[in-house]
Amino acid sequence: MAKSKTTAEGDVVTIKKYANRRLYDTERSCYITLDDLGAMVREGREFRVVDAKSGDDITHNVLTQIIMDTETRGETLLPVNFLRHLIGMYGDKMQSMVPQYLEASMTAFRKNQQDVRAAFEGALGSNPLAELTRRNMEMFQQAAGAFIPGVGGGKAKDAEIAALKAEIADLKAELAKKK
């Protein structure tokens, strides 16, 4: 998930849920929807949802409700077999390990996703066709230089020749000193 963004005071935003199912954002002093909370999650905003009457933290329930509403609208992310396995883990001896495992798996998945995205963007650069054309021209010039003298040399080859000539001159000077 994106780096957490919190309020100016550094606190987690508190959302109050009232008995009429309305959600109140205490930071912005307005009512919001589950879709707004989903957007806050995608933005990396830290929040907690509390029952307005009892003060109980119900963030887990509300986040689960957002997932259920999204899945009901046809935006399925969780495969049926995964849901079956997840339900099967309730009451299992290993149940207490599942949350940490799922969290670690999701963290690793997000990191891999970011790495792949960064590599993809880095490979494409700002204009992938221009870079591809430049590479193709370099390869063509190198290939042509192997068969046709004077073609494909360019500045790099001239600089290399000049460096070799300078090195030969230095070696000649050292030999002359030793004689």
From TrEMBL:
Transmembrane segments: none annotated. InterPro entries: PHA_DNA-bd_N (IPR012909), PHA_reg_PhaR (IPR010134), PHB_accumulat (IPR007897). Residues 78-116 form the PHB accumulation regulatory domain. Residues 14-74 form the PHA accumulation regulator DNA-binding N-terminal domain. It comes from the Bacteria. This is Polyhydroxyalkanoate synthesis repressor PhaR. One of its GO terms (biological process) is regulation of DNA-templated transcription.
